[in-house]
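S.,

As promised, the iron/sulfur cluster run. Input:
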Amino acid sequence: MDTRALRLVRRDRQQRKVRYLRDLASIPQLTPAERRSLEAVTAKYAFRANDYYLSLIDWTDPNDPIRQLIVPRTEELTEWGQLDPCNEAAVTVAQGVQHKYKHTVLLLCNEVCGAFCRYCFRKRLFMNDNDETSNDVSAGIRYIAGNPNVNNVLLTGGDPLLMSTRRLRSIIEQLRAIPHVRIIRIGSKMPAFDPFRITEDAELVDVLSRHSTPRKRIYMVAHFDHPRELTDEAVEALDVLIRAGVICTNQCPLIKGVNDDPATLAELFSELSYVGCPPYYLFQCRPTAGNEPYAVPIVRGWEIFRETMRRGSGLARRARYVMSHELGKVEITGVTSRHIHIRFHRAKDDALRGQLQKYKRDDAAYWLDDLEPVRGGGARRYPLSPRMEPAHD
Ligand code: SF4
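Predicted complex:
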């Protein structure tokens, strides 16, 4: 064991472990009537939480943002959206391997998270008959090794930090054996859901510290949605990662009832900048089945984002407001009295990359597909039909 890693993880206290819950009956703060009314919701969209995260809820406030994030709502049963709204199936090149942009491959290496965000865009992974993730990453490793364009690998799922450290070590070592892989990103909400996963595991810190090198960094793409998630424990977890040489950054969706006001979002972004995990993307909530109660229309989202961007330092204002669309990362760059302006920040089709487009303003629209193009504004109605094939080679 690396002695430096041991120093990063404090040993002068009792080890802490969270207790996971999969049943609303384990939450005494919910009334029997509330639990009964939510049974149909959890039968459709899985529930999972843990005692640490639940302890952050103010149960005297029915609108508490942490509660909105984790406790199901009956409105999730409203027919809305699709289970795979971004057609990730179209960019899946092997089980658990997605390749959408030339230089980036996603390995979906785990199908569980430290808790389940109610607005999750991949909630289909938590359903019984899903086989989109793979515990065996050998096909993904072979694919990446055989494709020298890929310099950036994102471990995702589910949450990769729910894997054992032994498995994570093996995956990272295999990726580090491929010379053209420069960046390894770990997309994880564990710093928010269960920071002890990081602060109590010296072996994990050792793996990260060994393989986040000056020329080939490991990035932790954290997922904090609300400033109250930045507890002392969470900040300590980020500190351990940073001291281990991991670069931290944050991405989160704009969620109704959680962070859909400029004061909350600006506080979150500022706090994240103070602790060394500055914001990266703010996502428009995807039109995923069950997400209707959590989505904010594009125009309202833009107003919140614009006001947020008037507050805080430059580091707190590094986020881009984007739709993670089937076609690419569509940045919302402006809204006027008549138009919505977008830019393809990333695109799987080379021709779209960086393109500016203009759509008619529609205050009720939630997604690019809802928007009507402006004649001569460079835009067309999306999604394209038939569905586009992935642009990777
Ligand atoms: S952490 Fe990410 S993958 Fe897991 S439930 Fe939340 S949004 Fe979904």
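The domain at 3-370 is CATH 3.20.20.70 (TIM Barrel). The mean pLDDT is 93.

- D.
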